[in-house]
Amino acid sequence: MAAKEFDVIVIGGGPAGYVNAIRAAQLGLKTACVEKWIGKSGKPALGGTCLNVGCIPSKALLESSALYVNAKDASAEHGITVGDIKMDPKGMIERKDKIVTELTSGIAMLFQANKVEWLQGAGKLLKDNVVEVTDHEGKVATYKAKDVVLATGSVPMDIPSAVVDNKRIIDSEGALNLTEVPKRLGVIGAGVIGLEMASVWSRLGSEVVIFEAMDNFLSAADQQIAKDAAKHFKKQGLDIRLGAKVTESKASAKDVVVKYADKDGDHEEKFDYLLVAVGRKAFTDGIVDEAVGLEMDGRLVKADDNCKTNIANVWAIGDLVRGPMLAHKGSAEGIAVAQRIAGQYGRVNYDAVPWVIYTHPEIAWAGKTQEQCKADGIDVVTSSFPFAASGRAKAMGATEGLVKVIADAKTDKLLGVHIVGANASELIHEAVIVLEFGGTSEDLASTMHAHPTLAESVMEAAHGIHKSAIHMMNRK
């Protein structure tokens, strides 16, 4: 029996893969998507890491924990009197699970609406664009496609000094499913995942210690922003230890003993749980037969700027290829590749990718950092505006942080915007749009903003480039 044929087969149903499949189907291409994920309920689920155990569930817990701490600590200054505030971690987790189920089910409905066929199981690319799918019962079927898109995402990195068992030593998925508030929580890695999960459980009462092997905090971020953020985290009680390398961890039924080394020597700490959040690695295990001859770049699939691999009509997107491992970057590549397959124009501007860390205050940036500009030999002008000078921020009780704008000293072209503060995740898109269109800091400054808003702080920071800010002293 001949293999069923499609125009496009996507291997992977995460934010890169499912978006690519939907867009391809919208463009009239007969499309299938292979996804093996089994959700917490035990049923097959779309959405990959992001929807199931990443972006979405973590934001649900961050929101719940923020509401709790605001009710407990911030209501009095608003003239609101409340009784004894209690947090039910199990209820919080149940709400998170409900949101995940609704969203993953929504993707399945979008597949039906767009006539995308969901092939449930693990996919493997064979020669001549044949895709082998092994379902959850072990049954194997083969399919043929004109174009194949690899979108299998990434998995948490592991380290020998802290082997995850998801009992006492947990990964990000384990941290999303704790039903008790740890008295002490250890975290290895002060990156996005480590900081967000540390924030959740710290707000609920955990004593949190974060071990970061690097000497610089948030080395990928603009260091002015990173230092300001670190100051606020310290005030919140997060104990972030830089230059601290975990050398050993031993788990028992009750706790985890962690040994680490820093500039002062060797140390030992005991925690209820230890979260390993040292980054992610591309998931390429068993997704391509060796006979295909797919070129790799380390663990990544080697792809050009159009996401083409060395194999004709085989593409790779998302966490599998160069660039930041961000859901929205993968989705943008998914749309662009679907359009390229369909013979249409598709592009991704890698210079305008927004980054967000959903802590309190939030951290977000787009474009170059001041450190990158210096390394590239670009002469720049910078300006910062503090949220403490924003009327809206004061009314909200959210005066932490600042907006920093970086512009080319010769052309005024906007090079980067960096924010630490309330709603930074939303505000950063002003910068993304200006970067996308190759605009200047003057474009950002001269655009009228509603008053009072947090967004005015972006405008004021841009005005500062030209020493024309109204609500702060301009540099001489």
UniProtKB/TrEMBL annotation:
It comes from the Bacteria. Binds 1 FAD per subunit. Its main location: cytoplasm. Residues 353-462 form the Pyridine nucleotide-disulphide oxidoreductase dimerisation domain. Its cofactor is FAD. Pfam families: Pyr_redox_2, Pyr_redox_dim. The keyword Oxidoreductase applies. Belongs to the class-I pyridine nucleotide-disulfide oxidoreductase family. The active site is a redox-active disulfide bond. This is Dihydrolipoyl dehydrogenase.
